[in-house]
Structure formats: structure tokens, C-alpha cells
């Protein structure tokens, strides 16, 4: 694991853990804690001690190298220990608020049906990172329940990242996003969708995006992108690459084998995997994320 954490990061990790788990904070109330939208769910996070327990349970079931969890936050905040600590607290509060581990993929069945032509998986790049593709002209703005979007994004990414974690033994946990703006127009702009997806990814899944290729984006798109960019941090914008139509085959073949790359991008594959197909191969329709983690615990995969 030492090769995954630099000598400069190691002391920052220890400082972050010391400050986060300071015994003097144990009985301190968690600030600005919101109740779950589910009236039948009681919020179990009252004090920092409650939050520590929830965090440790999450790390035990999900991480192979727990210190990498802290490193990701430190990298996302440019080594700012205070910001990293506050972000981790917000992550655990968010997981509790939306009851993430109690969700099942059947909970989002209607959403998956609506987006099956809009978003799908396209294998892995040459390094093994999974590729998520979006065809913007297949999306109908306003067609999705925005109050469910952060839940569905969180649910899907948790499983994608965990499967990658198990496959690579914790060494590779980032994904690639390919966004095709063919036939894009201002009528397809949905800022609520953009904010829900970008906000969830940036706030709760730091350092997970390897690359975002924005392909065939017309000149007019710059107007919409200027709005979206407001919600992006510097780390994220550095990972965004604009690819013109003529550049698509050349640029993507640098990253994907032809047998994996879809024919619409200059490859030889016609194989798409919908989100529902992907999840259906890994868990039952009524299986919760908590149950998924129990059967796919890193300690059980050796």
C-alpha cells in the first residue's frame, strides 16, 4: 500500500485521523444535521461518536486499504486537513440522510427504464477503468425525479467503485465518462440534472473521475458549459477533455481497445450494457446496498 500513498501524504493522513477522531470531540453534537426525508427513519447520528461508528463501519465493509479513503479527500482538497475532515463528516451525514445502504436497485426501476438509451456502460479502458457513456440527445429534460437523482447516482457509483476495488485489490478505483453531444441543442439543457450529478460526484466521491471526454460539443455548448463550470472544482475541470468529431476515433483508440470501443466512436463493438443489466448481474432486485456489501466484503474475496 505504501506505493499508493506518497511520503508527503502519509503524515497528512495521520494528522487528519488524529483530528477527526479526537476524543475531546466524542460527545459534541453534529452541526446542521438534517432529518431523513423518510418519516419512518430516525436519524441515528447525534454526536461525533455516532459518526465515528458509522464511518468505521463503512470503511470496514468497503475499503481494502482504509488509509486510501483519507488520501482521496486530501488530494481533492490539495492537502487541506480541515477541509478534508469537514468533507468526511458531510459524507457520513449524507449517507445517513438518504439512507443509502437501505436502497435497492428496484427502488430506481422506473428511472433506469427512462435512461437506458441515455446512459450505459462500455467496458473498460486499457488500464481497466470502467467507462460510462451518455448520449445527450437521448435524454428528455425534466423527465427524471430530481429528488431521487443523488440517491441513484450514489447507489450506482458505490457498486461500480466497489467492484473495481475488489478487482484491482484497491489499486484502481476511478472511472471514465464519455459524453456524446451529437444533435445537442439548448432545448436539451437540464441544469437540475447537471447539478445533481456533479454535486453528488464532487461532494461524496472525490478523486473518482479519471477522465471526462466531451465529444462533438457544438460551439453553442460553451454557453451551457459556462453555467455548469460554476459547480466544478479545479480538480474536476482539469480532467475534462473536449474532443471534436474528427478526433474521436484517434483519441479514444489511445485509451480503449477497438473490440471494446463502440462503432459510433470508431471502434468495432456494438455492445452496450444498461445500468439495470449491470446491477442485475451483481445483486437481486430487492437486495439492499448493505446486503451487497456483506456478500462482497473485501475480507471474503481473498
UniProtKB/TrEMBL annotation:
GO molecular function: phosphatidylinositol transfer activity
Span of domain CRAL-TRIO: 121-273
Family annotation (CDD domains): SEC14
Stretches assigned to coiled coil: none
Annotated source species: Naegleria lovaniensis (Amoeba)
Pfam families linked to this entry: CRAL_TRIO
Domain of life: Eukaryota
Protein name, UniProt field: CRAL-TRIO domain-containing protein
InterPro entries cross-referenced by the UniProt entry: CRAL-TRIO_dom, CRAL-TRIO_dom_sf, CRAL/TRIO_N_dom_sf, PI_Transfer_CRAL-TRIO
